[in-house]
Amino acid sequence: MDIETPDVHDAETVDQMFAVLQAAHLVDEPDNPPPCGVAYRVGMRQHPLTEKFERRIIRDDCRVVAVLSLFMPLVDNTAFCDAEVTVHPDYRRRGLGTALLREAEHIGRADGRRSLATGSIGRWEDGPQRSEAGRRFLEAAGYDLVLTEVLRSADIDAVQPAVERELLAQAQAASVDYETIAWTGRTPEEYLAPIAALNSTFLNEAPIGDLDLEPEKIDPDRKRRREELKIERGVFLCGVFARPKGSEEIVATTVIEIHTEPGDVAHQQITLVAPNHRGHRLGMRVKLENHEQLRAARPEVRSIHTGNASVNAAMIAINEQLGFVPVDAWYAYQTDISKTS
Length: 341
Ligand SMILES: CC(C)(COP(=O)(O)OP(=O)(O)OC[C@H]1O[C@@H](n2cnc3c(N)ncnc32)[C@H](O)[C@@H]1OP(=O)(O)O)[C@@H](O)C(=O)NCCC(=O)NCCS
Fold this sequence. Notes:
Blueprint: E1 3-4, H1 11-28, H2 37-44, E2 51-60, E3 63-73, E4 80-87, H3 96-110, E5 115-122, H4 133-140, E6 144-155, H5 161-174, E7 178-184, H6 192-200, H7 202-205, H8 220-232, E8 236-244, E9 252-258, E10 265-273, H9 282-297, E11 303-309, H10 313-321, E12 325-336
Parallel strand pairs: 4-5, 10-11
Antiparallel strand pairs: 1-2, 2-3, 3-4, 5-12, 6-11, 6-12, 7-8, 8-9, 9-10
The structure holds coenzyme A.
């Protein structure tokens, strides 16, 4: 069993790597949106500058049967890395996953990283049955559970229009001193600096359990570059910002992404209200206004998927009012690789 560094410019190898992810998706999380082949193939060839990826594969004969992707931030969180190990369902329980996880630890340690995080889909409460393979595998490898995120989804029309109008009217009434800005595609230039400043606080504000992460320092260039890389990967973005009337400071944001495949599914990204501006229903307002914008801009979208730390009561309360129901959970694990022999 040889571990190989794939040639990311070899389309056949990349196709086979993606096929492993697709096969795993069907077995491990069929109710969640499948991975997007367009984003995967383009992402393989991108050079983000503020982060790097190491990839490894294992083949059986010529066919790729197991894939490692290791994410390593370069600007902040330079002691942290995040691994995804995926083994084709027909090749499990043969030690391939362990071999790739140990390889990730080795690469991370050699790069001076302290913490290696990874994770797995699993069952949430009385939701659909899920394979326990990922969690058992990581526990067997000595990793600690550091965060539980509940994944929820909602049909685009989960809430009756009259109820939604009422929720929006209440939210707008509670936040009359604020104005909102809706945008699609790229963040308009004039909002880049204030939104970068707000985004920089995210890892301080959202519950991240014991993940060994520090807040990112996001400047306008970094924000723009990140967005451009997503757009290159075929991602459609739409968002709503809020700011106090008469102020340039953005104090609330929400963003939704749609991948090329499947094009009828939306992925909720960051929603954040700055601490001094909470309690005015801004979270509800920006989300509802963004849903309205999403329906107009991409009428083919049928559902929205989101994930929140199980302890994030404020965000979960909003999502439940918007018709989101739990599907399953993402269990994040971490280990200290500086201590691994
Ligand atoms: C999790 C995953 C990577 C494991 O790959 P694998 O090659 O089957 O793992 P290994 O053969 O190295 O298993 C090592 C140990 O993990 C545990 N384990 C793995 N799968 C298990 C399962 N289905 N049930 C219980 N324990 C399991 C066992 O202790 C196993 O040792 P054993 O076979 O001697 O009992 C694979 O199931 C997978 O791709 N799942 C989807 C992606 C995922 O969840 N990845 C998690 C890490 S990023």
